[in-house]
Amino acid sequence: METNSKPMYQPWNEDAFQADVFVRGMTWLQRLLYRSLLQAMFFHNTRPYLPTDDDVLWVLAGAESPEMWEQNKAKILKRFNVGGALRWEAKS
């Protein structure tokens, strides 16, 4: 897949997601926000990465407000690496 090409479908491995000890340590809300960000990585215009701008991330995560994002982002963003030109990429 080209770096910025839009996929026709998103592969998802729920077993791997649930088996990640760091995911298991998240609250249900953090898991939901994290899952939403992982899915956004496939379709946002920065694909296959996420932007690092909190004003965009809280919306992509599906948080109800910037405050909700602020309260939960530290644990979620630990699951991402900061790559190259200020972008987030999922840890493997």
What's the alpha carbon Rg, rounded to whole Å? 13 Å
Question: What is the strand tally?
Answer: 3
Report the span from N to C terminus.
18 Å
Amount of helix: 40-55%
| Alpha plus pi helix count | 5
**Could you name the ranges where pLDDT drops below 50 across 5 or more consecutive residues?**
none
Overall pLDDT = 86
Share in β-strands: 5-15%
Biggest beta sheet attributes = 3 strands, antiparallel
Question: Strand pairing plus helix content: what structural class?
Answer: mainly alpha
What series of H and E elements makes up the topology?
A: HHHEHHEE
Enumerate the strands of the largest sheet in spatial order, edge to edge or round the barrel. 1-3-2
Gross morphology is globular
Structural notes for this entry:
Helix 3 packs across helix 5 and helix 4 crosses helix 5. It is globular, with a radius of gyration of 13 Å. Strands 1-3-2 form a three-stranded antiparallel beta sheet. With 92 residues, the chain is mainly α. It has five helices and three strands.
How would you concisely characterize the structure shown here?
The protein has 92 residues and is mainly alpha-helical. It has helices spanning 14-19, 21-24, 28-43, 54-61, 66-77, and strands at residues 50-51, 80-83, 87-90.
For the structure shown, list the relevant keywords.
three-stranded antiparallel sheet, single chain, globular, 92 residues, mainly alpha, 11% strand
